[in-house]
Structures
1.
Amino acid sequence: MRRSVISARKFLAFVAISTVGIAARADEAPPGEARPSVVADAPLLPKDWLRTVEIIPKTAIGVREEEAEAYFRVLDFLNGVTEAQLRDEELRFRRNRIAAYSRRIEEIYEQERVQDPQGAELKREKRREQAETFRADPFTYPLVIDAFNRPSECHGEVVSFRGHVRKVTKYPPTENDYGIDDLYELWLFDEEGRGMPVVVVVRELPQGFPVNLREKDVIDGVSVRGYLFKMYAYRGQEQLHAVPLILAKTVSWAPVVPPAAPSMPPWGYGLAIAITLLLLVLIVRGRRRDPRLQELRERLAPPDANPFNNLENDAP
């Protein structure tokens, strides 16, 4: 995908490629067959646009030539969709996934109670409470887990992730019929992502968003809402990996402002106060007159030491 849409002819067919994603949590059932949506509303994005897209990569790394038309068509489509429409669409899909999660609770319970009836009952109650929390606020549901473990059920759906970015690349795409010029590829690490990135492609970035990152640079406070296009295959250090590829118009960025550095360390303020109090004590003590010392000074001083002492005797 970088710099051009990669042709499948440039690669040997893979014997097999596994989706290396996030390990399902204890409350997740193994991926099963996709169930029909529990929400009747039609999605914004026509699903037939994605019929050429290989959701689980089998023959090529990145985006295949056969997928290029759908790739650019979705990016162009996003220009005409409002953020409110995307949010409503995501809410519909999240409620769908929460309903599926609730069904899996009972399926898992039936499997677990064979080995440990008491433990299975406790786990089921905990999962039911969790499902109630998700239903109360669907945006708390960890959608990233489904994106990795059930990509076929998330294909062409609106998803959102938030976390930090460690990689930003600007590149010109291949020739297309939609007037799309520069694109940006970001590697976003979701808070629930267990250290696996989500690849995000956008047409624009927020003003001031860093592009030329050094190896250890991190951009915090980044979130994205867009369409899950496919699982994106790339070569890691030792093997092939596949992670969700999200197409979006842009990302949201709330830079984390570090607290202002104090002019001195915290202990410095205490030391300054102590020194100030000590100086005040010394000044006060210095101004106090001891009567005995004053008498001694007068006895030792010669009569003419202070001309104002004998003003009457010197008067004409």
2.
Amino acid sequence: MSQTVAARRAILDSIDGDWIADVCRRMVEIPSVTMHEQDVCVMFEQELRSLGLAVDVREVTAGRNNLYARILGTGDGPALNFNGHLDTIPNANDQPCRLEGDRIYGRGTTDMKGGMAAALGAARAILQSGVKLRGDVILSAVVGHEEPEAEKDGPRALIEDINNGRLKGDRILIVEGRDALWIMSMGSLNFRITLTSDKGGTHTQYVPFADNPIRYVGELIGRIHEFQQELDLTTSHPLAGPERIDVGILEAGDYYNRTPSQCLLVGTRRWTPGKTANTVLDELRSLVEPIASAGGLELDVRMELEREPFETPADDPAVLATAAAHKQVTGTDADIVGLRIVGDANLYVEGCGVPTFYYGPSNETAHSDNEWVSIQRMSSAARVYAMTAATFCGIAD
């Protein structure tokens, strides 16, 4: 048996599924809704230190800390950053944490404390095996991912720390999603279209329906439908399909026989790599302007929560290392996927230029009322993470 094969076997033999399950369960038992992650930050820091790692505690707001730890390599290989978030959405139905067969149930099991426990399990195995890697293995845990009021403060702090040299890494692997290589996400923005009429506040009896701004809202919705049909024909991405425009909110009027002063449409626009949020906003404004002008309506189009698209090539060395690890661990080829939904990879690639992708233990029940994660799949993910590190960072002689 070669030295490299023996080193890989030593790492895999050190993966402890029971330990990973216990860490996941204890994390899930600690409520950590966005903006209230203090207790889980303390617990995760203790777990890192228990592995013998020094921890860089990066305060984001009081008690809400990003946590960075590093397994030092020999210095002649690339560094890999296993990243994830510690916060969850609210536990609105008070789902308790419980163990049932192969599953751990509770808020945050899938999104994404299961992935974080698996990453810890991989780090623990590398350390316990005694195998020395050439490049560094980094563990980074952030707060402020889920709820809008945090404004992504944890991921944005990580970007700042990479840009100023506090945290380094050649690739970021976010330990979230299902056990597939999620290497691309569309860009996304929320748009707000406001049409204002100088005839608002007038009894509808005295305003011809032809001049009612609601009529023009109807025309706008029809135009949006036509635009989606155009996108279906012209913008398909091989991994994520065609671009999308969707409307989720329509508001107009304050009384049944008063002409509205304002009409509001709020929706989402998702686009493929090669465009930017500003070009998409200009495109949307051009779509609406002729309709507003025809109705003599004042127009305001603005965007919120914009995220640029990202795409990491399928032949990127870290992606290939993870694909090979998945094959080694599971005996099957990993799916290569792209999605319309956005995540922290959109921010990281745009904000600091580090190629980023996802691979997780599961994602099927994320944000659901009955969230759970498979213990076996966490253990499998930990093996994939460990073998990815061994390949990408390299095993020292």
